């Protein structure tokens, strides 16, 4: 079997793509862990705003499965809401700011994960 330079390039491209997919899966797994640690109490295990704390809250937490509402929300707004809390985006004071707990990369991972949960694309 003759192995050409084009075959080598194709194998390298496949390897890079596989590594990228593995990295994306790792980022999503980390985001799931972060969500389950910091968000699920209010936003719920189903990501629908019905967490254990939501029953006693005056303002219902955001339903992250709501494709329309989440699709209308830019990534920058989601990032600001997580980092600076609800007041940073003129929303509920009950949404705490996670700045100092989560770094910017972790917040970006959460924003990307919210896009998966809501079945929306980045804005």
Task: Report on the architecture of this protein.
This protein is mainly α and 123 residues long. It contains five helices and no strands. α4 crosses α5 (104-118). The model has no long low-confidence stretch (mean pLDDT 89).
What is the number of helical segments per DSSP (H or I, 4+ residues)?
5
Radius of gyration: 19 Å
The main sheet comes to:
none
Low-confidence stretches: none
Query: Quick one: how many beta strands?
Result: 0
> Termini separation (Å)?
47 Å
Keywords:
mainly alpha; 123 residues
Summary of the model, kept short:
The chain is mostly helical. Helix content is 55%, strand content 0%.
What's the topology here?
Elements: H1 5-38, H2 40-43, H3 67-71, H4 75-84, H5 104-118
């Amino acid at each position: 079997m003759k192995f050409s330079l084009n075959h080598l390039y194709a194998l390298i491209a496949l390897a890079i793509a596989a590594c990228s997919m593995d990295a994306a899966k790792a980022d999503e797994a980390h985001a799931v862990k972060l969500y389950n640690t910091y968000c699920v109490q209010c936003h719920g295990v189903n990501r629908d705003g019905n967490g254990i704390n939501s029953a006693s809250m005056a303002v219902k937490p955001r339903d992250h499965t709501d494709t329309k509402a989440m699709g209308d929300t830019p990534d920058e707004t989601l990032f600001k809401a997580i980092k600076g809390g609800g007041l940073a985006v003129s929303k509920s004071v009950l949404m705490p700011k996670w700045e100092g707990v989560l770094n910017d990369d972790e917040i970006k991972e959460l924003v990307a994960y919210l896009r998966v949960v809501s079945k929306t694309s980045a804005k």
